[in-house]
Write a structure and sequence with these properties.
Elements: E1 2-6, H1 18-29, E2 33-36, H2 47-55, E3 62-65, E4 68-69, H3 75-88, E5 93-98, H4 103-109, H5 116-131, E6 154-156, H6 160-170, E7 173-175, H7 181-197, E8 206-212, H8 219-229, H9 237-242, H10 248-260, E9 265-270, H11 276-286
Parallel strand pairs: 1-2, 1-9, 2-3, 3-5, 4-5, 5-6, 6-7, 7-8, 8-9
């Protein structure tokens, strides 16, 4: 199983200069992937721009939007930005996407919340056309550079019944989000079964994530950040905030549980933006 680490793009007051160094150190210490968490109606750093900054100072590590709320974005601009990041990173970018579940993200973006699933499927057709250098509906010229390998690799979020058909059609994988390992095991099993039943080719990869902070001096800030980010979920917010891994052994135990659940890659998502989190996590994971 591969182990990646998130970037602190959703952490409150994260300094802009943290991202390049975060990425350099994550690559040096052996993490497989840098992942973002996407939201619009929040004072977070833009994940695509953060990845572009990191791509310029790294050579190996992958990038994953986890997840980008595709139907909230104009398709042509999304095609252009994703193809650009693919080219800037030399093909290291995986577009993790989903339809989103928070109406406020769509409201501030000026996009309709209703009908987003149908729009998403239309977007996927247009994105794949654009990545091949073809025109998309509404235009006569291509809107983006061609993708490094003809398409940007994809992972789909959401429930298995919705994600698997899209993964089959577009040769993608699955990203589970913040489910605990036992729930992730059931979701992974269901996704793989639906994928196989629909005639999917090969073995799709599955990613999962959990939150962490290391160091007692960071606990209060970690709690503050998680309570802020999930403040619109009053019935869940405290469980999420208190549920982050905050000890070496807890991180090791969770990684082992996700591996047993059949997850191919687990992402350790930070809840504070101090650079020591990369080093501390690497010491736990890789020694």
């Amino acid at each position: 199983m591969q182990i990646g680490i998130g970037i602190p793009n959703t952490v409150l007051d994260a300094p802009g200069d943290v991202f390049a160094e975060w990425g350099r150190r994550a690559e040096e210490r052996g993490f497989s992937t840098l992942a973002s968490i996407g939201r619009i109606a929040y004072p977070s750093h833009d994940e695509m721009l953060a990845f572009a900054t990191i791509a310029a100072v790294t050579e190996r590590i992958g990038f994953l939007t986890n997840i980008l709320l595709a139907p909230a974005f104009p398709t042509a601009l999304l095609a252009k930005s994703t193809a650009t990041l693919d080219r800037l990173s030399g093909g290291r970018f995986t577009l993790g996407v989903g339809v989103g579940a928070r109406p406020d993200d769509f409201a501030v973006a000026g996009a309709e919340f209703r009908g987003r699933g149908r729009r998403f499927d239309d977007q996927l057709k247009a994105l794949h056309a654009a990545w091949k250098g073809e025109a998309i509906p509404g235009g006569d010229m291509p809107v983006a550079p061609t993708a490094t390998n003809g398409a940007v690799p994809m992972k789909f979020g959401g429930g298995p019944q919705a994600a698997a058909p899209r993964a089959v059609r577009w040769n993608g994988g699955y990203t589970i989000g913040g489910a605990p390992a036992d729930q992730a095991a059931e979701m992974a099993k269901e996704f793989r079964q639906v994928y196989a039943d629909l005639g999917g080719a090969g073995t799709p990869t599955i990613a999962a994530l959990f939150y962490f902070s290391l160091g007692d001096e960071h606990t209060d800030e970690s709690l503050r950040n998680l309570r802020s980010y999930y403040g619109n979920l009053p019935d869940w917010v405290e469980g999420i905030a208190q549920g982050a891994a905050r000890s070496d052994q807890d991180i090791r135990d969770r990684i082992a549980a996700y591996e047993a659940a059949g997850v191919d890659e687990v992402i350790l998502d930070p809840t504070v933006a101090t650079i020591d989190q990369v080093e501390r996590a690497a010491d736990v994971v890789f020694g």
